[in-house]
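tool=predict chain=A
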Amino acid sequence: MARVDIIIPTYNRATILPETLKSVQVQTFSDWRCFIAEDGETSATRAAVEPFLEDSRFVYLPGAHAGLPAAPRNRAIQKGSAQFVAFLDDDDLWLPEKLEEQIRFMEQHPNCILLGSNAYIWNGTASRNSDLPLFFSEPVSGSISVEALAETDFIINCTAVVRRTVFAQAGLLNEAAALASCEDYEFWLRIAPLGEVWVLDRALAIYRDAPQSSVRAGLTMPATYKKLAAVFDAALRGNGVIRSPLDRAGNMRRVYFYRNKRDFYRYKAGSFLDWRHAYFWFASEFRNLCLKIPSFGL
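tool=predict ok
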């Protein structure tokens, strides 16, 4: 059994998918199995994948078209059995030492259940030999609290590695249409209470930020706020099969924090269901202010 399952969902990316798969194949850490989960089944994708199937570590998984990356990701996750699960999008690339560094870190930090790193940003056309900008221009590293993760998504999907145990405790990715393009962030928020979340400061991947590959292109601010509200709501509720880890003893402060973030984004999106939602959000904001001012004695 491999020590790492690599999960790559793909849809209509036959021209650039081979480069992604090659970045997996040249990893200095070799004990992995890579599941290429197509959202549908096309001759173009099969042809792109075919040469890599000569390497028995690659597995091609076509399936019914769902229109959401969470569905093929979940199919692939359920096919694997490795201790660690690494996520990679079909247009991004890994640096050769990516897995080696992250698996070493997770073995040295047994309480770490989610690990990311920095990444380079590439527009898909410029030479990768030139100096590429960093995804996080200001270094982000170390242990990330649940509250900090709720403020900023510090986990770039193509750098994420999780322990397989989190799926039994929190469920698979949420396949709800409302979470499209944000289902990874919802998953990070849902599993974060289960253990430690860390980010390595070194860039270990190349994030392709080309217009034709961006899943968030064209989102208006109200639409973005609406998605973020859906993200926090789903993290609180769970994936519909297994209840959220937040719904367990010891997490009440985090539940309150997530609810406050959800209602804030609902307010910004103009999507409060009625005046009561607005009232409770403003009340929670006032309470937060009180907690920060000692003289209130709350």
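The longest strand covers residues 196-208. The CA atoms of residues 7 and 87 lie 5 Å apart.
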